[in-house]
Structure formats: C-alpha cells, structure tokens
Amino acid sequence: MIVTHILAKIRNYLRYRDTVRELSRLSDRELNDLGLSRWDIPFIARKHTKVGA
Questions:
Q1: Checking CA distances to 12, which of 1, 5, 34, 50 falls within 20 to 30 Å?
Q2: What is the largest CA-CA distance in the chain?
Q3: Residue 51 contacts by C-beta under 8 Å, 6 or more apart in sequence?
Q4: Mean predicted lDDT score pLDDT of the chain
Q5: DSSP for the chain?
Q6: Close Cβ partners of 16 (under 8 Å, ≥ 6 residues apart)
Q7: Tens of pLDDT along 14-39?
C-alpha cells in the first residue's frame, strides 16, 4: 500500500516535470495562442498532474 502510494507520487512528479519541459519549449507566441504565459506553466503543470494534491 505504501509502495503504491510512493510510486504514484513519483509518477505524478515525472509527469509534472515532463509537462513543464514541454510547455517551456513553446515560444511566447505559441503560449499566447494557448492563452498562457510563462508564469502559468508551473500552475498548469501542477493542475494537470495533481502534484501537491
């Protein structure tokens, strides 16, 4: 049970990190087209991956 919980947290963190990396690769114009700014990236990644929940 604990191992499953820890593995889920690790998977969520890895998804968070990948999401931040992918969004960070976008240009400011591409982010703007999506309605995002660079400041939104960590928030969006946390929301998407439920890190810290």
A1: 34
A2: 45
A3: 12, 13, 15, 16, 45
A4: 92
A5: -HHHHHHHHHHHHHHHHHHHHHHHHS-HHHHHHTT--GGGHHHHHHHHHTTT-
A6: 45, 46, 48, 49, 51
A7: 999 999 999 999 999 999 999 999 99
The pLDDT value given to residue 12: 93
Rounded to whole angstroms, how far apart are CA atoms 43 and 23? 11
Distance from CA of residue 36 to its chain's centroid?
13
State the pTM of this model: 0.82
Q: Which amino acid is residue 43, in one-letter code?
A: F
- Burial of residue 30 (CB within 10 Å: 0-12, 13-18, 19+) is exposed
